[in-house]
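Researcher: Quick sanity check before group meeting.
Model: Go ahead. Protein one:
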Amino acid sequence: MEFNVHTYSSLPSTQDYIKDLAAENFAEGEVIQCLVQTKGRGRHGNEWVSPMGNLYMSVLLRPNCKADDAGQISFVAAVALSAAISEYLDEKHTKTLKWPNDILIDGQKCAGILLESDLKDGKVESLALGIGVNIMAAPEGAVALKDVTWEIQVPIHPFRDRVLHHLNHFYTLWQKEGFAPIRKKWLEEAHGVGKTVTARLAKNTHEGIFEGIDEHGTLHLKAANGDILDISAGEVYFSN
């Protein structure tokens, strides 16, 4: 896949921009990056604080898959982003992938992924893949890549290109071989497998042991009574 990168000094939201391009029938591979976002957002509409010095970008994808499989792209992006971060991460720090779409370093959030899809007749017409990485600055409780790298400074644009390089690799792998190799790669770095997790859903909360994910990316939670609960959406919190 060829990427066509457009970089701006400031935008309200790279996601909104890429979704506009999708509506105008732009081809897969368009990338919108900005140095500052004034209305950046994460999952569930939460604000994504977007100061100068970090990576904010959105990629237009047209995966031609069923709507039920669209969520797999979040894991594709996670393993790609993880591979790019590994090129800079000092080996004394630990990187893990938190379900469904965060990258943690030493248990603190370093990067996040936002997936927004446009569906038609049960298939994905287009998909806006948003990626945010704390490189030079991080909000309270999170971590910046500059504080855990072996380099003096992490250059934003070369780092962006490494993310896109790995995204191309894993996206192509997913298209050719399906979700199985992506799932395997993600589970190798999964955060908290075998540990107690609390899953907060829209109407209730469940607690149990994080058993892993299935072939659709659904989280498997083992309740105290032995039942396996399937969690396809929600927020998860791990016990210390």
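Researcher: Fine. The other one?
Model: Protein two, sequence then structure:
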Amino acid sequence: MAEIISLGEAIKRFVNDGDTVALEGFTHLIPTAASHELIRQNKRELTLVRMTPDLVYDLLIGAGCAKKLVFSWGGNPGVGSLHRLRDAVEKGWPQPLEIEEHSHADLANAYVAGASGLPFAVLRAYAGSDLPKVNPLIKTVTCPFTGEVLAAVPSVRPDVTVIHAQKADRKGNVLLWGILGVQKEAALAAKRCIVTVEEIVDDLNAPMNACVLPSWALTAVCHVPGGAHPSYALGYSERDNRFYQAWDPIARDRERFSAWIDEYIRGTADFSEFKAKLAAQRGQVMSAYSTNEMMTVAAARRLNNGAVCFVGIGLPSKAANLARLTSSPDVVLIYESGPIGAKPSVLPLSIGDGELAETADTVVPTGEIFRYWLQGGRIDVGFLGAAQVDKYGNINTTVIGDYHAPRVRLPGAGGAPEIAGSAKQVLIILKQSHRTFVDKLAFITSVGHGEGGDHRQQLGLPGAGPVGIITDLCIMEPEAGTNEFVVTSLHPG
């Protein structure tokens, strides 16, 4: 049965140095208060597991709490890099960080296997990707019924999972709703689970089929209003996009970062005091994001009305929403965080913005998005961004340079390998330069047409693969036979 105690006591009693810790919440309900408390209590040698490390793990890595990171995408959503993560991987500051890299579909399935008490998870993924070359835990198994070769990964079974939720009752039962990600699976996969909540009530009044975690499956419940900030709790708060933008210049500089955590985390008694101090000292705001309007318009025109589109964040989301509001009003937008049929009135900064969930036809768990909708063959178009692309439409979003000693550590795979592999068609959008268009990728994160010709079919990948690359200068399409991308039109001007 869950104990209702303070967050400080829960972290002290249930998180030990050297533990494997998962702080889950897929862009929504991120347990930020718990990451602060781990830093205050100087927990060390932690193995951190999380699909999207986000700011919570940038903090823990920069504070020297982490020895290893297990993840599937590492960026500041809608803004850019996680600079403390990059500094640890690229330069070993404040200490070297071991990384174990997966894709979103992989980790989501690994949590499901952990919650199910299974030793490993199986999925259709990674054909042609370089990720299995650098992660020896990604294996293959042969289906005993069909002979198909599938990917297999170990289940995730944390020592401790921490999640944030909207409500708990006085018995310690927990109710959460909105974008659920893999929180339920992460909670049930763990040996111990701590839940921070917005409020504690006499009765949850949970509707039938709601996501309720029973008290007997949890270890501790902690009342921490606003504990997900700068992410949000649907029904209680909005995502603080200003904070995500302001974090970029803070995290870029070691001294500025260290001074910030000394003042705002180590210098405060708890998360309530942190929020009060932050409210009194707000003021750092990053300049607004800008992009090439012609590239966005050209990309929007490639989406057919009624198409089911799996949308990446940034330029793909901007173009897809422009299409929905103009030439293709019946396009169905799906985001990997769980919204299906999202119709935002304001352009989302991240895949976790509350309006995506609030305007969607339905919201499903992250694992379901990849299992039923993407790998089930129900996605017409995958719309992806890239850091680098080669002449066959293969994508790199992982590293520049050697994987184990990179010159630049990029965010990683996220859901891109499975989107590129399973969508019926793929569109790629990125700005054109000598750095983004290269003869040979340093790392193949997501396969386009492989080595050209029919190599994609030889790999057993369904769908047509990339059918267009849209840049700020032109549109490229694959040449018949070779599948090498050539310029087919130039933008005006």
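Researcher: One line on it for the slide.
Model: The first helix runs from residue 7 to 14.
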